[in-house]
Amino acid sequence: MNLRIKSLDEILATAEKKSLHRSLGGFQLTMLGVGAIIGTGIFVLTAEAAQKAGPGMMLSFILAGFVCAVTALCYAEMASMIPVSGSAYTYTYAVLGEVLAWVVGWALVLEYSIAGSTVAVGWSGYMVGLLKHVHELIPFIPNVVIPQAWAAGPFDGGIINVPALVISLLVTWLLVIGTKESALVNAVLVTIKVVALTAFIVLALPAMHMHNFEPFAPNGYIGKVGVGAAAASIFFAYVGFDAVSTAAEETKNPNRNIPIGLIGSLAICTVFYLLVAAGAIGSFGAQPVTGPGGVVLEPGSIGLAQACEGLHALACSHEPLAFVLREIHWPNVGNLIGLAAGLALPSVILMMIFGQTRIFFTMSRDGLLPPVFSKIHPKYNTPHVVTICTGLFVSAFAALFPVGKLADITNSGTLFAFLIVAVGVMILRVRDPARHRSFRAPAIWFMGPLAVLGCLFLFSQLSTYTEELFLGWALLGLVLYFLYGRRHSNVAKGI
Predict the structure, then answer these.
(1) 438 falls within a domain
(2) Domain with 411 in it: what CATH number?
(3) Domain range spanning residue 64?
(4) Which of 131, 255, 256, 462 could form a disulfide with 144 if both were Cys (CB 3.0 to 4.6 A apart)?
(5) The pTM is what?
(6) DSSP 8-state code for residue 199
């Protein structure tokens, strides 16, 4: 069987011909990683985790972080060997061939595009909450209440999430006309997010009460609810560290700086997440909301939305960190955290849509997608066709789906891509042992299988609906590949 493998030397030669300017160092990459990671995951999915695991979400953060850590080591070795754009898609092309590379690239649509939708819904929750309390923050502006029907999708007790739709379309428009974040703007936004989380930690930890941690795991540990299921959901809180590897072509000394950026950003964010989770649980409580007979209600369901009407619970909040601070008598700081989320999260949406266009551009360059996806606007000099298509896709999902379901869909694609990278690193250790590796994942024959098993375990903890959706998405991708990509591939044409 012809796997159509594009060799490492060919990939590196192609990248060298069309290489980008190398200007990023280890510190800039770490900040890029922190900026990509810290977003809706920790600002919003704390409530999702509370509904699935209760206080046990502390273990969920550790479990998800551990799986990311062992996967990051595999990513670091792969990125140091193949410092080019395309991330997991490019790595798979080099190791496992064109078909799997296509499936990974197709799965990355779920990672980047649906992640953009997830962040948009998270932004919407904080903005709706901020507008309800804006008078407390700015006295000359009256409070604005957006009805639930227009602040949530049909799966979450509403009709359409208008704020999420608007911010997604706005970011798409900005990308089409060529607005890009400068390094300075990105640094400022990262600072805002870090300061907001630090303020939460400083105010919430002193208000901790140990009785709020009991019962610790009310829904158990394994299954579609419980600690494992919460870990599978909040895995999204760590998604973004692989964005560091997509900047490989723009990195000085990538063999040294890519591993620094990957592992450094992950370590910083893990510490923040554990402290934020401890503060939220200890100061207010995080027990799940149950229905009649003590049945655990599914996050993002109409049943939970109805049960939450008039109920003050962490699992019910669309802006959990701001909600907790208001409840422990720091309303103005809670409102400021809402403002920080409102200012900073749109940049994450921009990064996700921008990242998706890069993946599509790389696939189009390889002939697996039509040339129209790399078409450049005559006035703005941006890939407007792929940007508009991606933006409309992101906007539609943001308008209709709740944050928890979107995060799970994102995680399904991400876990698959991470699993393939871990397998690829082990294959290259056998197939190409002499290739220079400035960074070698320690104990690869332990870490590699651990990364694979970790990804498989978290995937198994996702909802059945999410698993079926991913399989359907993969099958659709394969149909498109055999209808177009297989015949038009540059490798097939000998280019």
Answers:
(1) yes
(2) 1.20.1740.10
(3) 23-490
(4) 131
(5) 0.86
(6) H
